[in-house]
Amino acid sequence: MTNDQIVALLASIGACLSAVATFLTVRQIAKQREASYRPELALSRSIFEGSTDPMVAGGRLPTFWFKKAQPHESTKGVQRLTIPLQNVGLGTAKGVRLIWSFPIADVVTAVNQLAQRTLTPAYFVYEHGAVSIKSDTFGARTSFWKNQENDWIDYVLPASVQNEAMNLTLPDAYVLLCSALVFFGAKDKDAKSFPELPLLRARFEYRDMGEQEHQAGFDIELHLIAFGGEGELIHGYLESRKVA
């Protein structure tokens, strides 16, 4: 191989290495740009107390869940329980669709079994997308689960821009059935363990500013700390765990 050929080969290798370096640089810039678009949703822990709803005549179930004020927070007024939602990513989440789910039919069956075992005059029915309670003691009430399964949010700004969290309202059907589980469970003196409280799944579908689609799923666990009276008062917290 002549000197001219060696020089030409080295020049070709140099050009190739330069092209590879340029490609890697462009790819890194693209990744950084994508990261700047990407939102990251997160749910925070919520401590709450529950009591009978003053708006429900004759109601005995602890369906009025309200936020327990922290020492640094104002105690003026009573705020219904919500779950704080924040975007801890760098980009805005837009067109957010929220899908709630939990094993509602199984929970209705468990509630009715507890009511029967504790000789409580109450019966729950789940049909046509609605949960109804029929009872001369607890009154009549219907919660339309089919209208609670989905929710929409226009956008969620990054936490660095929007300091206050967005508040998500819990599905009424979930609150109603969990309240019944706690109330009837408190009356079941012979039970070896307290009834298991169902997981609530929250799934988010959203887009970033670059129109890329994203999903995030959370399992929300209800933990009971204490209950008072015959189950009309409860104290607990909701804790979220990301699953997807």
Look at the helices and sheets and give the structural class: alpha+beta
The rounded Rg comes to 27 Å
Task: Indicate the low-confidence ranges by residue numbers.
Answer: 28-32
How would a crystallographer describe the biggest sheet? Answer: 7 strands, antiparallel
| SSE pattern | HEEEEEHEEEEEHEEE
| Helix percentage range | 25-40%
Distance between the termini: 59 Å
The strand count comes to 13
State which percent range the strand residues make up.
Answer: 35-45%
What is the number of helices? 3
Q: Provide the domain count.
A: 2
| Main sheet: strand order | 3-2-13-12-11-5-9
What do the pLDDT scores average to?
Answer: 83
Shape: elongated
Task: Give an overview of the whole structure.
With 244 residues, this protein is an alpha+beta fold. It folds into two domains: 1-37; 41-242, no CATH class. It is 27% helix and 35% strand. The model is unreliable at 28-32 (pLDDT under 50).
Task: Write a concise keyword list for the protein shown above.
13 strands, seven-stranded antiparallel sheet, 27% helix, 3 helices, alpha+beta, single chain, 244 residues
